[in-house]
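step: validate -> pass
step: tokenize input -> pass
step: predict -> running
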Amino acid sequence: MAFYSINMLRIAYTLADHDSTYDDLLVTFLEHTVRITRAMDKRGLWDDEEGFYFDALRDADGNTVPMKVHSMVGIIPLLPAAFVPEDSVQRSLALGKHFARFLAGQSLTRESFERSMTIQSRPGEPARLLSIVSSERLQRILAELLSESDFLSPHGLRALSQRHREHPFVVSIAGMEESVDYEPAESRSGLFGGNSNWRGPVWFPLNYLVIGSLVHWDDWFGTEFRVEHPTGSGERQRLLDVARDLSRRLVSIWLPGPDGRRPVYGAYGKLGDDPEWRDLLPFHEYFHGDTGAGIGASHQTGWTGLVAHLLVRGGILDEDGLVDPDGDDHSPSQ
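step: predict -> pass
step: emit ->
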């Protein structure tokens, strides 16, 4: 919902620049975003000790049980980030008594509203960044996201941190004990239909959204904001270069490796070695979290076909620039 609200807010800003009848939508989606952000904090979804967002389960008695599974769920809050002109922000903040009453009802002043919304500004810049996470939380989330011991694999971001390989998450509720562990490919249980779904493999759509989000964040922070990539390597990179590297890792699923075989074919020798087959590339539903082998449906062009965007517009074949999902060019000099 936060991803939806901030992106709808960005659209509303664009429309309102040309037609004032859309001003009401600015207030509507600002309210939605404030409510969502405050609800996330009130429910304790952010764990300051672990530096990550987690699900929470409420039982019939109203008790909240933290679900400390290090999964893509904790990554989603960093995805929505809107780069908004300053005059648009000021217009939306000055839209009359309705929004003022809303802020008062939320026990917010304008200053606390800006903090809750994570509205960031820079001296001399006629724009602001709207996001759910602060820059400090962003860095803490990325430290885990870009760790090869957690989410970062040679072929993209895993849906579940591989820390759960050795340390499964276990929860006891109403006399039942359930666990979540890291399963990078086919499930060891028939409970999930014979595959592991979101318990470890690399999924293209969320990887693609992370790359686009990093480009938006880089738009805002520029060359000065750097994170360690991979975590623990000692090498600090700007977010644009991190986005490029994630693109390369994803594309490498289909490229011949040092042994001449494409990771996508996995253990299927004939597909990888036979000259009649080795260049016929399938678009699998998702990919092995450790090896990049294709898993699930082999014709999932609906989202895995996004690799074409990474190739043609995304950077691995274009070292001079990266184009984000909105079609804006980004070069290393920016």
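step: describe -> The mean pLDDT is 81.
step: cleanup -> pass
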